[in-house]
Amino acid sequence: MKKNLILYALLILILLSGCEGTSTPKLYPGDYSDLYTVAINTMLDSWGAVGGWYSIRINIIEQDAYGRVLFQYYESKVNHCLIISQLTEEQFVYFYPDYNFISSSEDNFSMEQINELKERNDWNMDLNIDKCIRKEITILKEEGNIIKDSKFEAFYYDLYDDEPSFISANYFSKDDYGRSIYTTRSRGKRTVTYSGDDIIIMMFYPDGTYNKEVGYFELTELYNYQDELKQFKERNNWNLPFE
What is the full per-residue pLDDT of the chain (243 aa) written as tens digits? Predict the structure, then answer.
């Protein structure tokens, strides 16, 4: 009987260890939580998850005379990225919005691309905090506003006539006034953009409502969307107080 109980206990432990979902988010275990925070608030489709199918690599490439950091961020569900962080100060990190990164399907950035990225981020110039956004340093990507799946579906059906085979959503970021942006993937009947999926960026207000006129755009370029994202934020008064 005792032997059977021991075997039973071992079986339970094995089953429990195998039941953890391969996509279950885990805490970022590395040494660069500040840079991790910049990355998950920079890359549209980042999951910020560790474990299972997800792996994260952060490598510091270079630092300038004022403490800016040029680093490489790779996440197995996203692309290769080079990102610049402006400043880490106590529990906060500072970076420029919209143009603080370049991305590619492979790690093959040219010196011209890197130099342009540096120029846009005032590399080796005096720090200008007024140009930055600030985020509290974290080791786990937050979920944002609690938006039910039915909300994403309702938004989709307000935009299109076709019926997708699925809709999944990934939280991106939230502004200081509670607006939140999500990357949604669906498989409809329109021109697909990535791995057979349509990628639609949606913005929700703090109460979960949305504006179907300006609150979305279809992502057509997976590695070069800086201008589109900036214009999208401007149309939606991102980081501005409600009137």
Answer: 433 433 333 333 333 333 333 345 578 888 999 999 999 999 988 888 765 556 788 999 999 999 999 999 988 655 789 999 999 999 999 999 999 999 987 878 999 999 999 999 999 999 999 999 999 999 998 877 778 888 988 998 898 887 777 778 889 999 999 999 999 888 765 555 556 678 899 999 999 999 999 999 988 887 889 999 999 999 999 999 998
The separation between CA 193 and the C-alpha centre of its own chain, rounded to angstroms, equals 18
Task: Report which of 78, 88, 95 is spatially closest to residue 185, judged by C-alpha positions.
Answer: 78
- Cα separation, 155 vs 222, whole angstroms: 22
Q: Residue 44: which of 76, 79, 68, 93 has the closest Cα?
A: 79
